[in-house]
Amino acid sequence: MRTALIGCVKSSEMALKILSDIDNVELCGVVTKSKSAMNADFVDLTSWCKDSNTPYYFYDNSSAEGMKHFLSELSLDVIFCIGWSHLIEESVLHCAKYGVIGFHPAKLPENRGRHPLIWALTLGLEETASTFFRIDSGTDSGDIVSQKLVKIDSRDTAKELYERVLVSAQQQLIDIINRLDNQSLTYTAQDPSKATYWRKRSRADGIIDFRMSAEAIYTLVRALAPPYPCAEILTKGAYLKVIQAEVDESCVSRNIEHGKVLAVEGRWVTVKAYGNNAVRLKLATPHNLTEGSYL
User: Fold this and answer.
1) Are residues 9 and 151 in the same domain?
2) Same structural domain for residues 19 and 158?
3) pLDDT, tens digit, for every residue of 211-266?
4) How many Cβ atoms sit within 10 Å of the Cβ of residue 173?
5) Which pLDDT value is given to residue 65?
6) pLDDT recorded at residue 249
7) What's the pTM value of the predicted model, to 2 decimals?
8) 3-state DSSP percent of the chain in helix, strand and coil, to 5
9) 146: which strand partners?
10) Which of 37, 164, 173, 270 has its CB surrounded by the most CB atoms within 10 Å?
């Protein structure tokens, strides 16, 4: 089966390795990027392409026609789009016999759109999904070909959840190839009445507000932990990145104002949150916060 891959992140690298190891798959080409500031988990796929003599094409926002030309020359059975933050031009969808199969780590038709794992953690969801679907002209709206639920642990960081989703995605990818090969792949239309969309997050979404509960701050820090951009404290015009958090289980007087620094231990600071709780935060770099100051 002649395939191509579109992608530029860690999940794309996973797919590249899986596809290259399947006996009945010939990986004919890769569409990727030379760099990507918008993807925290960007991976350079070109070294693998060069080592395996696999043709590749560098995409930029103005080169959709070039992508179409590159892929249409490969006589493809199917294209996989895994780890890609752009909508696929409709003309590209017709460059392979079975179209383009995309990947979205959410329980479609719910939670289409941007940053699905970060939003799932931030919002305190208890499960997500690893979903493959046939890409159409909409946003994550095409027919589902494989979906497996993935539980979210209350202590998961985005990295840990991402890695667990990829474990499921590997097996799903192999199964999809096998079912395409024996022509048993089924397509299930999404119910548009159940569709929801997540917006693109901004830096402001990651700013810690100490009027939040300690648990909510802990959840926000987990959702944005490395390799993602990190939750931040904004103080006196400076942004302090937070890489780890713990809820302080000791009872703190409600009479203490939220945002007061209760303790400083190296890069760890304990700060009063909403109610009678505090949160311990580990900063990414040295700081000049002092006990008794306010954030």
Assistant:
1) yes
2) yes
3) 999 999 999 999 999 888 999 999 999 999 999 999 998 888 999 999 999 999 99
4) 23
5) 87
6) 84
7) 0.92
8) 25, 30, 45
9) 132
10) 173
Residue 293: inside a domain:
no
Q: Is the dihedral of CA 116, 119, 121, 127 positive or negative?
A: negative
CA separation for the pair 88, 64 (Å, rounded): 8
Question: At residue 16, what are phi and psi to the nearest 5 degrees?
Answer: -60, -45
165 and 225 together in one domain: no
Domain boundary among 198, 218, 233: 198
Query: 100 is in which domain, residue-wise?
Result: 2-198
- The answer on 265 and 173 residing in a single domain is no
- Identify the pLDDT of residue 62: 66
SS3 annotation, 15-82: HHHHHHHCCCCEEEEEEECCCCCCCCCECCCHHHHHHHCCCEEECCCCCHHHHHHHHHCCCECEEEEC
Q: Are residues 112 and 184 in the same domain?
A: yes
**Of all residues in the chain, what percent carry a pLDDT higher than 90?**
89
Crossing angle between the packed helical segments 158-181 and 10-21, to the nearest 10 degrees = 30
Is residue 288, in this structure, part of any structural domain at all?
no
End residue of a domain, out of 178, 198, 218: 198
**Beta strands 78-81; 2-6: pairing state:** parallel
The strands making up 268-272's β-sheet, listed across from edge to edge, are 231-235, 238-248, 278-283, 268-272, 261-265
E strand or H helix that includes residue 83: none
| Residues 141, 263 share a domain | no
User: Is the pLDDT reported for residue 166 higher than 70?
Assistant: yes
**The predicted structure's pLDDT at residue 58:** 93
Residues 84 and 219 in one domain: no
**DSSP H stretches of helix in the chain:** 10-21, 46-52, 64-72, 116-122, 158-181, 214-223
3-state secondary structure of 199: coil
Question: Residue 79 maps to which CATH number?
Answer: 3.40.50.170
Q: Please provide the average confidence, as pLDDT, over all residues in the chain.
A: 94
